[in-house]
Amino acid sequence: MAGAAAQFPFGHILDTLEYGPALEGEAIVKQWLEKHNHNFGHFINGEWQRPVDRDNIPSKKPSTGETLANTLEATEGDVQIAVAAAEAAYKTWGKISPFSRAKFLYSIARNLQKHQSLLALVEAVDSGMPSKESRTTGVPAIIRQFYHHAGWAQVLPEEMQGWTSLGIVAVFPGWMSPLVQLAQRVAPALAAGNTVVVMPSSHTRLSALLFADICSQAGLPAGVFSVVTGSTPGLLASHPAVSAVTLAGNTLEGRAMRQLIAGSGKKLSMELTGHCPILVFEEADLDSAVENIVMAAFSNSGQNTYSASRLLVQEPVYSRLVEKLKVRMTKLVVGDNLDKNKDQGPLCDPAAVIRLNQLVQEAQAEGAHIFHPSALPSGVHDCFPPTLVTGAQTSSQIYIEEPCGPVLVVIPFRTEKEAISIANHGVSGTAAGVWTENVNVALEVASLLQVATVWINTYGLLDAASGAGGLKASGFGRSGGKEGLYSYMRPSWQQPVRTTNSEVDLDKFGASSRSDLLPSPAPVDTLKAGDNPNIDKTYKLFYGGGQKRPDSGASLPVLSQTGSVLAHVPDGGKKDVRNAVEAAVKAAPGWSKKDGHGRSQILYYLAENLLSRSSDFIQLLSSASGDGNQDQAKTEVELAIQRLFHWAAYCDKFGGSVQENTLYGLTWKVHHSLGAIGIVCPDDFPFLAFVSLIAPAIARGNAVVAVPSGQFPLAALAFHQILETSDVPAGVVNIITGDRNVLTRTLAQHQDIASVWYFGSGEAGSTFVEAAASGGNMKRTWVNYGRPRNFLDQEQGQGQEFLVESTTVKNVWLPMGDIFAN
Amino acid sequence: MEVHSSGNPGWDYDESLFKSIRVNLSAVKAKAAEIGICRSVKKQWQAAWQLRALACIDLTTLAGDDTPVNVARLCVKAAHPISKDILKMLNMNEKEAKLTTGAVCVYPNQVQVARETLDKCGEGGRSLPVASVATGFPCGQTPLGPRLEEIRSAVKDGASEIDIVINRTYALAGNWRGVYDEVRQMKVACGKAHMKTILATGELGSLRNVYRASIVCMMAGADFIKTSTGKEGVNATLVVALVMIRAIRDYYALTGYKVGFKPAGGIRTAKDACVWLSLMREELGEEWTRPDLFRIGASALLGDIERQLYHYATGCYPAMGQMPMG
């Protein structure tokens, strides 16, 4: 150091007080790469495997384009070996004691902690993320994931009673914060007793490989955790031995995955990008909001799943906020992401620069104003400046298209109600920020936003104890907290599902109705009556609170087991479903706002009225068997009454809880209703299954469009009388009979349906429902893959699963505090 | 009312500028935690920044046992803050670099000896201002008359900067008009001397009050707003600073007058000082990192800066006793 001063006179620095570079040393990254000879194999069965004759893909450093190392392109055989190792390891890992599993996860956390610096640097070098971000938020978050989930591994038997591990989980972290996305999935999957195979994004493979290196050091049994590099996720995801798939990425990747594994019986959870809004109300701390907005929109160059790309500002503070934001943005510096004095590094994907330029130019041509104050550095590849767009409208392409880069579009709004409707408009629903010091506004907005995470007066906080994820087309399943464990477990009574032939012709399934609508014999009781016929009982569809004739003007005969015609029911179709969904969507918000006590009163009332009419229902049900035996019918009706009582009880006992995360303040988890749920009931237990399915859905505030058993829909149709006499608001329960496939098709493709539950027989319907969901609003699905369910059984007929499927989890973060001194 | 000032002549009392201010503590804390992380200076940049920090120090002694002995010692150190050995190693010339602290800061009774000592310290000493605390420092719990008289006496003895304390009794009761009127009279009493108003933020209860006090003092003509006396439980924190700096920014946007900022109490290391400079640079601009708009009230900081410069020049850490005593 001596003599340094002489070499570097301070002259101009003393005058300008500039920062100079503050580069992080990369020596340790180079050492690690050299240890692997800059050539990585797959990490399978606890060791590095380098099969020969594979394609090599260079992992590049985004800031310079320099090749850091070569990684392999997996073949089907490589995946096969990894999955086989995971399968073998699962036999032990799934059975070891909770304490043992906890110790392994704890050891991973410890070993990650020992290599914090290397992890942060490799993540930064490989993905282009500013190293100060990977160092201060990314790496601490992954360590926290493993400590937290070591805890879950320990207490799993008590806390997840009735649930068991799935088997092999295929993990696909995205390229946005790849390490965090990996840890968010691997930690709960392992804690729950699964083994995992990770296939990192082709853009960012190195940090996953480093993670594997560290895991092997942590003494994890061979095969429990493997990494296979490749650019064909399908090879791994559709492997028959894989039981679950979890993915982080963009909506396109999500859709492709949903479609790929539709009908396979694999459990799927996805966290997709969110096009997230921040809402700034007039009573906000504007200076703090500005700081927060800059972080939310431009950290990691706007390439986080929850990066804010829409800024909604209340009219009275619009100009002031935009002015302050512009001033703040002039301080942002773009450059080498390993320089601590730079705020933004290069984009991870070089193609994004071209795309963003195009988007911005088009907006400019449409009259929007583009503000990007920061000069781009020379010598650093693929940078895009922090960009603020004003003067665009909600119909502008730049507002509609998610940028996945440092572009923020500002839109003014007038009232709280308008803010909500702008924010909720659109297909995505990952997270949102709310800025106001007014507690009434904050809480109401938080409750009305259709997203998985709401941050009040803060943004971007994540913690292993609170599940993050998406709603609507932003995915389903959560990462973190107890809510996150359900993506990696199944009810213990269920056998693992492995469908053999899940092929279904998506164009043809349910596309046209049956054609046998010619007159059939009159119902039995009419025939028996002789000269004194009974008055013809006409069954109708039930939706919007009233009985409706089907649009087709046609009926279907209902036959008894002996083949005689019992009655005719309406042949409902596409238009009837449309009307019913409309009614359900209209009813859902009011019903979900109704307090739990109020809903439970109505469910109890349903039980009460069903009890007083039970003999009618028993008779109706027993007529189906044709032998006059009432035992089964009696059991069904009695259990149905019990189910109504059970779900009436749960109307006010599953609202949510307070999360124990690292926030000073309050984070609460709310179990929201989903909206309108389409329920396709099984033929078995035609009445009990119907009641068992609709009751939990409505208990938790959803509206339903139910398709009763195709074979024997009479009891379910007759249930409308009970609904009408029990104060169930119009549109909350809608019942449509008809060709089950036609109705299923319409429900699955309807974009206003938030979830479809399919319990029909055969695998085709389940496959169709899952595949159709990928095309539209990416609705949630709960299907049986053609496996029967014994609704008489308590676990199968009213287990916790029903609550999980009837709700979606939202976490609201509210920091607190005003005391800073005396 | 006639107001003498080179910087901020003040503004008519206007409650609408501060009454409904909203400050979210947790968000300000989050930002404060980021300041030290999002920028850093290394090598020669770090040394240059330390020299800039040195030029902004109000080298302070405010103790019951202050006598001409230690006050004179302090003043000489302020005029020659870096030992000749180190300067030589840094290839620097004290005179050319105009290397002194920003001011010395003492009690009114020590102003005279401070002024006399500095005047004997050559050009650097002669141009070095003496700042005096006044107005019943640190509590301000004396009648207004004596408080104003204290200012006048300090100015007469040679103080060209006066660090007044505001009336916390008024502030906590929400009597901002009262605070304004008093500070306005103090400004008059200061005459040509620069007025720094100490908000004693550690006793204001909320960050909203910190913002209000900042704006009220600037409206009343403060040339600097200062965090604390150094005697409160909580003194200069980045959290409080952010709020005061935002007020300075807002006042400047409204009036076009630039008001300086002085954190005092608790800033002891060269590293901390660089974080504070970075805060000023990021939030207000480079202009606000110079002694005419930025001061750090400190007594131990200078010693640490000298030690760090020694380390920069030699690569070794000096023993405490190796540096000339100040």
UniProtKB/TrEMBL annotation, chain A:
Q: Which domain of life is it from?
A: Eukaryota
GO molecular function annotations of the record: oxidoreductase activity, acting on the aldehyde or oxo group of donors, NAD or NADP as acceptor
Q: Where is the Aldehyde dehydrogenase domain?
A: 52-491, 561-786
Q: Which Pfam families match?
A: Aldedh
Q: Which Gene3D superfamilies match?
A: Aldehyde Dehydrogenase, Chain A, domain 1, Aldehyde Dehydrogenase, Chain A, domain 2
Q: What is this protein called?
A: Aldehyde dehydrogenase domain-containing protein
Q: Which organism is it from?
A: Elysia chlorotica (Eastern emerald elysia)
Automatic annotation (TrEMBL), chain B:
Quaternary structure, from the entry: Interacts with YBX1.
Annotated catalysed reactions: 2-deoxy-D-ribose 5-phosphate = D-glyceraldehyde 3-phosphate + acetaldehyde
Q: Where is it found, in Gene Ontology cellular component terms?
A: cytoplasm; nucleus
| Keywords, sorted A to Z | Cytoplasm, Lyase, Nucleus, Schiff base
Alphabetical GO biological process terms: carbohydrate catabolic process; deoxyribonucleotide catabolic process; deoxyribose phosphate catabolic process
Q: Which InterPro entries match?
A: Aldolase_TIM, DeoC, DeoC/FbaB/LacD_aldolase
EC assignment: 4.1.2.4
MF-aspect GO terms: deoxyribose-phosphate aldolase activity
Q: NCBIfam families in the record, alphabetically? A: deoC
Catalytic residues of the enzyme: K226, K262
Can you name the source organism?
A: Elysia chlorotica (Eastern emerald elysia)
Pathway in which this enzyme or protein is active: Carbohydrate degradation; 2-deoxy-D-ribose 1-phosphate degradation; D-glyceraldehyde 3-phosphate and acetaldehyde from 2-deoxy-alpha-D-ribose 1-phosphate: step 2/2
CDD domains under this entry? DeoC
What is the annotated localization of this protein?
Cytoplasmic granule; Nucleus
Keyword Nucleus present in the record's keywords: the answer is: yes
One Pfam match, by short name?
Answer: DeoC
Q: What does this protein do?
A: Catalyzes a reversible aldol reaction between acetaldehyde and D-glyceraldehyde 3-phosphate to generate 2-deoxy-D-ribose 5-phosphate. Participates in stress granule (SG) assembly. May allow ATP production from extracellular deoxyinosine in conditions of energy deprivation.
In Swiss-Prot or TrEMBL terms, this protein is called: Deoxyribose-phosphate aldolase
Q: Which family does it belong to?
A: Belongs to the DeoC/FbaB aldolase family. DeoC type 2 subfamily.
